[in-house]
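Treating backbone geometry as a discrete language has practical consequences that deserve illustration. No coordinates are needed to read the tokens, only the vocabulary itself. For completeness, the protein is quoted in full, as a sequence line and a line of structure tokens:
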Amino acid sequence: MSPLSSLFSSSSSNRFIEFCLDDFVSYSDGRKKHVCCEERSFFDNWQKGDYIEIDNSKTVCGYSASIFASTTIIKLADCCPRHGFNNLHKEHNALKDKYDKLERERDDLCDDRDAWKEKYENAIKEIDRLKDERLRENTKNSDEKLRLAGENSRIKIEKARTEEKLESKSSQLIEITRELEDIKGELSVVSEELSVVRKEKENQIIMFENKLDQKQRLLETARQSLEELKIKSEREKAEKDNGLKEKENKLKRKEEEIKRLKNLVGSSQEELLSERLRLKEEKLRIFLGKLEISADLEEKIDNLSKYYKRLKNARKNYNQVNIETHEDNIARIKRELRQGRIIVENVEKICHQCEKIANFRFELDEVNKQQYQARQEVPTN
């Protein structure tokens, strides 16, 4: 296997996926910083920054443009920094990038040094050539001798400057080498910190698993308690339903009694209306008991019966203002009942019962009024 390579980007096509790496892979046509693999689904959970291992013994048999089977040459390294190590991993990548940059600068300086060295050697050769030429041309004229002397002086100055530049480049190279050594030390410290953090995370995972087991046991206890409460609630509901059925049976018996009273000779209309009113009110109370509504809503339903009665009285007297007022009050209470989480069907049933109760109350008031007037018309002896 090759040294670990960090995955810093990838590109894909319908046929293969290409990984760009921060380290070299050996091929038959040289060393490259990429690898192409088949089976794209194999890499679905891989991320930028993951460390991978590549089998150079297999890639060296192919070209850099070859497409390899994923599972035969590449695998995700165990030291891949994930999740809790992202910050340290970013710092590690930054130091590695800085290290690579310094390496490139050192190579550039070495190239510059070689270039200046070549210039220096060329200058020496040029000096030697000029010396030979001076010896050959020394007899020609003094002006040529002076010119050669000036040229020699200029070349010496250039040589001195070149040597100074070489010394400066050498000192810079030494400084860069020292920085590289410091970076290597920092990389070793970061690696040690990564191992310490990994151990701490493993201990935290064990602790979280223990807490999760405790929560699971508490949840099971709560679930059992909930089942017991559910059974108890169903039992109480059944008992309540039995009580409601008993009241309904009682109400049916009362209705049968009303029918019997209608057939009785001498039954007064007032008594009949009163009994029917009482039965309707009892029936409404039983229905409201099934709905289990709040006391506030029960008060609104009682007011609803009053508004229906006032509406009937206003219609009898052709009082349009009162008619509109009581119709608005009835509509408002209907909205409040629906807002109290009572379904529309039950709201309509409640309104129907309240309207019947209001009619019975209105008729009872009319009967009482007629009886009062009859008593006023009876002459006194």
Notes: The beta strands are 5-12, 17-27, 30-37, 51-54, 67-68, 74-76. The chain has three domains: 5-80, 86-208, 268-377. Residues 142-263 form the longest helix (122 residues). The longest strand covers residues 17-27.
